[in-house]
Specification:
The chain is an alpha+beta fold. The protein contains four helices and twelve strands, in the order βαβββββαααββββββ. The chain is globular.
Length: 255
C-alpha cells in the first residue's frame, strides 16, 4: 500500500505523544501490486518491489470535486513558519521526531499535533509548518495505523470522496506485518503551493535498505478547523511517485 511520507522499520517510539501500536508489514501476495499505488510517500512492502532508480507512478486523474465541510475553529499560532505572503518555507522548522510503526514522524509544540485521541493525531497550525507536519503525519497514519485504527483516521482526517471509498475497500483486504527498513523515512520537502486553505507539498522519502529516494506530492486542505488529507480518485495520496537522485532543490529535514 504504499507510497507514504517516509515509512518503515519495526520499532515503535516512546514518549509524550505515545505513537504506539503494532508495526505494519507483510501484504497479502495478491494485493501487493495494487497497494503499492495506494499510499503517500514512499513505502515498499514485504513481497513487493523495493524503491529503485525506476520511477513509479499511480494513475493521474482529476481530483475530486466534492466540497469539504465549512471551516470553523481558530488556528494555533506558529512562530516558526512564514505565512502565505512571505513565500515558501525554505528552511526546515525546529521539530521533534518520534517513531510510528518504525517511521520517524515530526512533532512541534507550536504547530502540532496538539491533541491525541486514540489513533487520531490532530490540532495542526494553520501555517506552512502545520501543513507540512499534517501532510507527513496523515499520509503515514491513514495508511499504516494498525488494527482498525486506520478506519478512524480515514473517516476523521481524510476528505470524503471516491478516493476515500476506494482506499477503504483496498485497505480492508490487506494484512500487514512488515520487516524493518521496508518503509521510506522523511528526507526532504518542497512546497508546490500554499494558502491558508490548501497546501500541496512534495515529500521525499529515503529507503533505509537501499538509500534510494522517492518524491510524491501530498495535498492537505484546511476544513473543520484542521488540516485534512486529500486523496486521489484512485485512493492514493499522490498522483505520482518519482525516483530522484538526490535532495538538490529540496529542503532537507533537520535531525
Amino acid at each position: 500500500m504504499a507510497d507514504t511520507a517516509g515509512l518503515r522499520d519495526s520499532t515503535t517510539g516512546e514518549g509524550d505523544y505515545d505513537p504506539a501500536g503494532p508495526r505494519p508489514g507483510t501484504v497479502a501476495a495478491g494485493v501487493v501490486a495494487v497497494v503499492l499505488l495506494v499510499g503517500a510517500g514512499a513505502v515498499a512492502l514485504s513481497g513487493g518491489p523495493s524503491p529503485s532508480t525506476e520511477p513509479t507512478a499511480s494513475p493521474s486523474v482529476a481530483s475530486t470535486t466534492e466540497a469539504p465541510p465549512a471551516t470553523a475553529p481558530t488556528a494555533v499560532a506558529d512562530p516558526d513558519a512564514p505565512d502565505a505572503t512571505q513565500g515558501p518555507l525554505l528552511v526546515a522548522p525546529r521539530l521533534d521526531w518520534q517513531l510510528f510503526t518504525g517511521v520517524p514522524l515530526p512533532y512541534s509544540k507550536t504547530a502540532g499535533p496538539s491533541r491525541v485521541d486514540g489513533p487520531l493525531y490532530r490540532g495542526y497550525a494553520r501555517s506552512q509548518t502545520g501543513a507540512l507536519i499534517a501532510a507527513t503525519q496523515l499520509a503515514t497514519r491513514y495508511l499504516l495505523t494498525p488494527g482498525q485504527g486506520w478506519r478512524e483516521v480515514l473517516d476523521r482526517q481524510v476528505l470524503p470522496g471516491t478516493g476515500r471509498e476506494i482506499f477503504a475497500r483496498l485497505r480492508s483486504t490487506v494484512d500487514q506485518d512488515a520487516a524493518p527498513g521496508t518503509y521510506g523515512h522523511p528526507a526532504g520537502f518542497r512546497f508546490v503551493a500554499f494558502t491558508p486553505d490548501v497546501a500541496a507539498i512534495q515529500l521525499v522519502s529515503r529507503f533505509p535498505r537501499t538509500g534510494s529516494l522517492q518524491v510524491v506530492v501530498v495535498t492537505v486542505k484546511w476544513t473543520g478547523g484542521d488540516w485534512r488529507l486529500q486523496l486521489q480518485p484512485d485512493g492514493s495520496s499522490s498522483p505520482t511517485a518519482q525516483a530522484v537522485p538526490d535532495l538538490d532543490g529540496f529542503v532537507v529535514w533537520g535531525a
